[in-house]
Each structure stands twice: as structure tokens, then as C-alpha cells.
């Protein structure tokens, strides 16, 4: 596959987790093509890897059903501008990373214009709105999935698919070192720490900061030896959460970090986390977790109608059973979160069984994902070229 005419790729990630995945992919592709031109939309990690981000990734950081509608004019304008750019400056392949509501419409137009399209990170078509698989089939030349059950779904619909494993499973050690993580953070190695990870989006801070902080305060009042950690994806989220901290729980012994979420997971005894990729990271770090999530009332009502799966947390989805608690909407209240924190702290045998199950799932997800994806893209180009 050497000497393939891969000179330029278009790439688009819509949020922090996609930015990290995109950066790893860029590094893997550059091993084959060190002078590869890469442009599209990415965050700090992708730009550090060499991506020319044409627009700010924050313009895509929306969640739920209602919030995107409020931002619809800007999102339509942004997609139009990107489409015109790539039509005038066609890449050899376009890679859309997650952000399906934005990416798939763009991918369809690009593919119709003759540009090969790869979509990395499957939308949750297996969970809700399964009819979207027909649009996906028209929009992509290849779907790359992070989870094994996703690939099986696409195979049923004859969509070209490749399961590539999850890059975090290869990156995160099978047996994380808690003491080492605490030394890296310069925190007390002997304390009991609870991590608060309320999410990377502005709306998640808005909905989750207060219940997370009040749950932590309640736990601290009952057990004053407890200490707390929090990490945020950038300075904006840091400041938003810090303002909530000053408002609701200014006396809480909470240490703040930026861009250190994985270190926080590794260092913690228990993690309180929102739904999403962070739940998978916490599982891979073998830490007991409480998944808690709130959204607007209307978004929650629509989700109850449309979502057809019994779990929202990736550990539970992968296991096909209730491994960790999921507290959604009104259930995500300080009393319930605090109760689950104490349940983990008071039952080490329960935590040990959870660690063993998490280790099994970790092994199932391990692969050299960046190389798998790079190989898939290069094979795709080979098929297009010869």
C-alpha cells in the first residue's frame, strides 16, 4: 500500500472525545504519509497533531434534541461553508468522526460529489431511530465502529463496516496504578478521593454541576475525611464549574484540574460521571462509578419515547447487564448519588467483583485501533485507485 496518492484528507470532529480520537488517527496516518495535508474541524489535540481547523470546534458542541434546534441557523451555515470548501478543495478521503447529525448530511453531499467517505464512531442507530441506517448506507463508503455489537448491526443491513476496537482500551493500562496517578497529580496517596466528572459540554455543566457538588457536600458532611477531585476539558468548562462551586459548595475540599480527567479517574476511589465516553474511560481504569445524567424536560420526554435500549452507560451496554448504577433525570439527585458513593466505599468485595468484570471487558476491546483505521483507510484508497 505504499506510494498511494493520499496527499490530503478532510476530517471533522464535533467535540472533545472526537478530537482525541482524531488526533490519534492523524498520528497513525502520518506514519505512512509524513507530509499529509489535513484540514477540517478539530480541537486542541487534532491541531497539535497537524490538523488545520477551519472553524472553532465549539460551534458544534451541542447536545440533546432541543439545544441543536436553537443553534440550527449557525449549524446549517457552518455545514454549507464546509461543503463549499471541500468541493472547491476536494480531499482524497473525508473522515467524519462521530457528530452524526452534522456529519452524515455533509458526508452524503461529499460522497455524491465523488469524494470517498469514512465515518468513524457509529451513531447509536442500534438504540434509536434505526431507519437512519439507510441514510448511512448512502452517505459512507465505510463505517468504522468502536464496539463489537455495532459492527454486527451494520452487517445485518449490508453496510460496509469494520470493527476496529476502542483506542482507549489500548492506551489505558490493564492494571492502572492509583499511587502513581496520585503522585502525578501531587495529591495525598493515603486519602479517599471521589472524582466529579460532569462532562465536556456547556449544557452538561449547566445540568450536572449542582447535583454533583451537592452530593459531594452531603458525603463530606457525613464523612469529613473524604476529599474530592474534578477535571475539565478546557478553561471555559473549568470556569463554569468553578462558578457553580463558589455558589453551591464553596467550603467543599475539592481540587480542580484541567485536561487531567484520565489521571483523576486513575487516582480516584469512586467516580461520579455523566453518560458518554467518560463512562468507558472510567471502566477501563477499573474504578467504581455512578453514572448520572440530566437534560431538559422536553429532551428527556423525547428520549423516553425514542430510545429503545435498557441502558445508557457504556459499561452496562457492553456487559449486557447492570454493572453500575444509572441515575437519569430526577433520579440524579444528591441523595441518590451520595448513597451510591457510600455503597461502594462500604463494600470493597463488591468493588473487587466489578474490577474483575471491567478487566474482562477491557480485554475484549483491545486492538491497535489507530493502525486498524489507518489500514482500513489505505485499503479504501487502494480500492478507489486501482
Question: Can you tell me about this structure?
Answer:
By secondary structure, the chain is α/β, with parallel strands linked by helices. It folds into 2 domains: 8-165 and 367-385, 3-Layer(aba) Sandwich (Rossmann fold); 172-365, Rossmann fold. The protein contains 18 helices and 13 strands. It has helices at 16-32, 44-49, 66-70, 72-88, 100-112, 132-139, 148-156, 167-171, 178-185, 202-222, 235-248, 261-267, 277-284, 297-306, 314-319, 334-346, 348-365, 369-385, and strands spanning 8-13, 37-41, 52-53, 93-97, 117-120, 142-145, 161-163, 192-197, 226-232, 254-258, 270-273, 289-293, 326-328. α1 crosses α18 and α4 packs parallel to α5.
Summarize the structure.
Helix content is 52%, strand content 15%.
What descriptive keywords fit this protein?
single chain, about 375 residues, alpha/beta, Rossmann fold, 2 domains, seven-stranded parallel sheet, six-stranded parallel sheet, 18 helices, 13 strands, about 15% strand
Helices and strands, with pairings:
Elements: E1 8-13, H1 16-32, E2 37-41, H2 44-49, E3 52-53, H3 66-70, H4 72-88, E4 93-97, H5 100-112, E5 117-120, H6 132-139, E6 142-145, H7 148-156, E7 161-163, H8 167-171, H9 178-185, E8 192-197, H10 202-222, E9 226-232, H11 235-248, E10 254-258, H12 261-267, E11 270-273, H13 277-284, E12 289-293, H14 297-306, H15 314-319, E13 326-328, H16 334-346, H17 348-365, H18 369-385
Parallel strand pairs: 1-2, 1-4, 2-3, 4-5, 5-6, 6-7, 8-9, 8-11, 9-10, 11-12, 12-13
Helix pairs in contact: 1-18, 4-5, 5-6, 9-12, 10-11, 10-16
Amino acid at each position: 500500500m505504499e506510494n498511494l496518492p493520499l496527499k490530503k484528507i478532510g476530517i471533522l470532529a464535533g467535540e472533545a472525545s472526537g478530537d482525541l480520537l482524531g488526533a490519534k488517527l492523524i498520528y497513525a496516518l502520518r506514519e505512512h504519509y509524513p507530509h499529509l495535508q489535513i484540514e477540517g474541524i478539530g480541537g486542541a489535540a487534532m491541531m497539535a497533531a497537524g490538523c488545520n481547523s477551519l472553524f472553532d470546534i465549539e460551534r458544534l458542541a451541542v447536545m440533546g434534541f432541543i439545544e441543536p434546534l436553537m443553534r440550527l441557523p449557525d449549524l446549517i451555515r457552518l455545514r454549507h461553508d464546509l461543503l463549499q470548501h471541500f468541493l472547491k478543495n476536494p480531499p482524497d478521503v473525508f473522515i467524519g468522526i462521530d457528530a452524526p447529525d452534522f456529519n452524515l448530511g455533509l458526508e452524503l453531499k461529499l460522497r455524491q460529489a465523488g469524494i470517498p467517505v469514512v465515518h468513524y464512531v457509529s451513531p447509536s442507530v442500534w438504540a434509536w431511530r434505526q431507519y437512519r441506517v439507510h441514510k448511512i448506507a448512502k452517505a459512507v463508503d465505510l463505517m468504522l465502529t468502536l464496539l463489537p455489537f455495532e459492527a454486527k448491526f451494520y452487517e445485518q443491513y449490508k453496510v460496509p463496516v469494520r470493527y476496529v476496537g476502542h483506542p482507549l482500551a489500548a492506551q489505558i493500562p490493564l492494571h492502572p496504578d492509583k499511587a502513581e496517578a496520585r503522585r502525578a497529580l501531587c495529591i495525598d496517596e493515603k486519602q479517599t478521593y471521589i472524582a466529579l466528572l460532569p462532562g465536556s459540554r456547556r449544557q452538561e455543566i449547566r445540568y450536572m454541576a449542582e447535583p454533583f457538588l451537592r452530593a459531594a457536600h452531603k458525603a463530606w458532611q457525613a464523612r469529613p475525611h473524604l476529599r474530592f477531585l474534578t477535571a475539565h476539558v478546557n478553561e471555559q468548562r473549568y470556569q463554569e464549574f468553578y462558578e457553580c462551586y463558589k455558589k453551591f459548595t464553596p467550603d467543599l475540599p475539592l481540587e480542580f484540574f484541567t485536561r487531567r480527567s484520565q489521571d483523576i479517574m486513575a487516582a480516584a476511589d469512586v467516580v461520579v460521571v455523566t453518560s458518554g465516553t467518560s463512562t468507558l474511560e472510567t471502566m477501563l481504569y477499573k474504578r467504581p462509578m455512578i453514572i448520572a445524567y440530566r437534560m431538559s424536560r422536553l429532551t428527556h420526554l423525547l428520549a423516553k419515547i425514542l430510545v429503545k435500549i435498557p441502558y445508557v452507560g457504556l459499561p452496562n451496554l457492553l456487559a449486557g447487564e447492570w454493572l453500575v448504577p444509572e441515575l437519569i433525570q430526577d433520579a440524579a439527585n444528591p441523595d441518590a448519588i451520595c448513597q451510591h458513593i457510600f455503597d461502594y466505599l462500604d463494600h470493597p468485595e463488591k468493588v473487587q467483583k466489578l474490577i474483575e468484570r471491567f478487566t474482562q471487558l477491557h480485554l475484549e476491546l483491545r486492538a491497535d485501533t489507530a493502525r486498524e483505521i489507518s489500514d482500513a483507510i489505505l485499503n479504501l484508497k487502494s480500492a478507489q485507485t486501482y
